[in-house]
Amino acid sequence: MSASSPRLYSAVIKSAERLRQEADSVVIEAAGLTVAQAALLGVVLNDPDATQSDIAVRLELSEPAVTQMVARLQREGLIERTRDENDRRRWRLKVTTDGLAKAERARVAFEGVNARLEKMMGEDVASDVAERLNTLRLELKS
Questions:
Q1: 72 pairs with which residues across the strands?
Q2: Residue 2: its pLDDT value, please?
Q3: Which of 5, 6, 27, 120 has the greatest CB tally within 10 Å of its CB?
Q4: 3-state DSSP call for residue 87?
Q5: 46-86: per-residue pLDDT in tens?
Q6: Three-class DSSP category at 75
Q7: Is the pLDDT of residue 101 over 70?
């Protein structure tokens, strides 16, 4: 192991946590949602047939975490959950009008987070970092 490895790990972890906090702060201020909640709404908007299991896989969250998030969003009137008529074991999710408005405000706010990163790093470096981090995440997954 090289001498820089612990520093690299520490830098990645600390940067990821700080970025998560910053993004959550910006999105909460704009839409009253965390980034994860906004992402869940985005998945449902883009794929109304997605099951809670599908959402968990796409967002790389546990199914219980998604179930809790759906319940919270339902209590807040941002999502509706009904039993599937064809498969009573399955829930159908639908974003409400209020949920749609909040999801849009969250999307715009999150775009600002990405724009800030691109400005700080430069577009080419930001693109390269994103590609390398995605590769790293996929490699660690297998």
A1: none
A2: 62
A3: 27
A4: coil
A5: 998 898 889 999 999 999 999 999 999 999 999 999 888 88
A6: helix
A7: yes
High-pLDDT (> 70) share of the chain, %: 96
Question: C-alpha dihedral over 16, 17, 21, 27, to 10 degrees?
Answer: 40
Supply the CATH number for residue 99's domain: 1.10.10.10
pLDDT at 4 over 70: no
Structural domain boundaries, residue 61: 5-141
Res 3: pLDDT: 58
The mean pLDDT of 8-29, rounded to a whole number, is 94
Chain centroid to Cα 43, Å, comes to 9
Q: How far is CA 57 from CA 109, 140, 142, in A?
A: 24, 16, 14
Tokens matching residue 28:
């909460």
Count structural domains, the chain. Answer: 1
| Cα gap 24→20, rounded to integer Å | 6
Question: What would you report as the CA-atom Rg of the chain, rounded to the nearest whole angstrom?
Answer: 17
Contacts of 38 (CB under 8 A, 6+ apart): 27, 31, 102, 103, 106, 107, 110
Report in angstroms the alpha-carbon separations of 38 from 42, 104, 120, 134, 136.
6, 9, 24, 20, 24
